[in-house]
Specification:
The protein is an alpha/beta fold. The protein has a domain of 173 residues: Rossmann fold (3-Layer(aba) Sandwich), CATH 3.40.50.980. The protein contains 14 helices and 21 strands. It has a 9-stranded mixed β-sheet with strand order 12-13-14-15-16-21-20-18-17, sandwiched between helices. A 5-stranded parallel β-sheet has the order 6-5-3-4-7, with helices on both faces. Helix 7 packs across helix 8 and helix 10 packs across helix 12. The mean pLDDT is 95.
Length: 401
């Protein structure tokens, strides 16, 4: 459409290239942005804003990607819901976040409706993909979106020591052009290729999945979306679709590493340039086996919903410095602090604190937790324990509980 400046650079340079494909629905970059603009208008018409969020309860699928981009264009805030949760658990997140609209899929509709009803969200504001969602989206045109500020997720922590807390990061609320440039730059920090085909099997409701998705869309990637991980199918996709990039978590890497050598040698996997993992340590035997089979294409990054990263560990780093999670990116300062708030020298174990150039995160509706996670000088922690070596490489001793 004339007069519209695309958000994604690939939409400008190669609009008819496939942007996302889940095996059922495939969209070009032009089609993806058209749908995203319709969603942005639909969100505005529904009264959704950064202060009146909406929620997504869905497995990985093409619609997830269009909603992610639509929210970005709208400048609103969405709550990505873990579809393994029960209705009461989801109800807590809807209530705590102040969500006013829910989009779900047919297999999760009963859970979504029960949760929404229990917190007073009207049934008409629960939209089901395949039954109402498309009408809500498509009754809006795909004309220009007046908003200039990028929308963002309201991510909830795991809640292992109490109720989950929503995290509002300082890098949210950026101008749209800075969002595009910033997410592309983040992809560069974690060594993501500048172009390619990415297979995403990790959940898009998680910060890892959605973070990598945003970077990939801004780094000229076609996205293959899978709603579950099967190691044989993953290798088939690498061979048949020329997959270059994949985010995985350690449990999936273990499943992949347990395959026989023949599963790797019988396929052409030469396109694969980058596997990244986070969320937990990967068993060394599994990581080493995948490096042996696929080459030094594995990049670990440490981070959190709060924005404590990325700290980057290449395959070479990992082999040369066993146990490290890598070096902080240039915009991140890491320090180790004792229980009295004193900085510790290299090699000594303490609580890891972080300083970002754009400030510290806050916890939605919980000023006390926000204060307790920060030092007076603005450095913040998520409670992880570790140390730095003399060259600045970071090591974890214990994760927060």
């Amino acid at each position: 459409m004339e007069g519209i400046t695309p958000l994604l650079s690939t939409t400008r340079t190669d609009p008819h290239r496939t942007a996302v494909d889940d095996g059922n629905t495939s969209l070009t970059f032009a089609e993806l942005e058209s749908r995203a603009r319709r969603i942005a208008h639909a969100l505005a018409s529904s009264g959704v804003t950064a202060d009146r969020p909406w929620a997504i309860l869905s497995r990985n699928r093409t619609e997830w990607v269009e909603m992610f981009l639509g929210n970005t264009l709208a400048g609103s805030r969405y709550v990505p819901l873990n579809w393994h949760l029960t209705a009461p658990e989801i109800a807590y997140l809807l209530s705590n976040s102040g969500s006013t609209l829910v989009v779900t899929e047919a297999s999760l509709e009963d859970t979504a409706r029960a949760a929404a009803a229990s917190v007073g969200i009207d049934a008409s504001r629960v939209l089901v993909i395949g039954s109402g969602y498309e009408e809500w989206r498509d009754e809006n045109d795909d004309g220009p979106v007046a908003n200039t500020v990028a929308g963002a997720p309201l991510l909830y922590t795991g809640g292992t020591t109490g109720p989950s807390k929503g995290v509002v990061r300082p890098d949210q609320g950026l101008p749209l052009d800075r969002w595009s440039a910033g997410t592309a730059m983040w992809g560069g920090f974690v060594r993501m290729p500048e172009t390619g085909t990415m297979c995403i099997t990790t959940p898009l409701y998680h910060a890892f999945g959605s973070g990598v998705l945003g970077a990939a869309l801004n780094r000229d990637h076609t996205i293959i979306v899978e709603d579950r991980f099967d190691p044989h199918r993953f290798l088939d996709l690498v061979a048949s679709r020329g997959v270059t990039s994949a985010p995985l978590v350690p449990t999936l890497m273990v499943r992949l590493a347990k395959l026989d050598d023949a599963e790797f040698t019988s396929r052409d996997l030469s396109s694969l340039q980058w596997i990244t993992h986070t969320a937990a340590p990967c068993p060394p035997w599994a990581k080493q086996r995948l490096i042996d089979l696929l080459g030094p294409c594995i990049v670990e990054f440490y981070g959190s919903s709060e924005g404590t990263g990325p700290v980057i560990c290449t395959s070479q780093d990992w082999m040369e410095r066993p146990g490290t999670v890598g070096l902080p990116n240039p915009g991140l300062q890491v320090s180790v602090v004792d229980e009295n708030g004193n900085d510790l020298p290299p090699g000594e174990i303490g609580t890891l604190y972080f300083r970002r150039g754009d400030g510290a995160p806050r916890y939605h509706g919980d000023e006390e937790k926000t204060r307790s996670a920060q030092l007076p000088d603005g450095r913040f922690t998520v409670g992880d324990i570790g140390y730095l070596d003399a060259d600045g490489y970071m090591y974890l001793v214990d994760r927060r509980v």
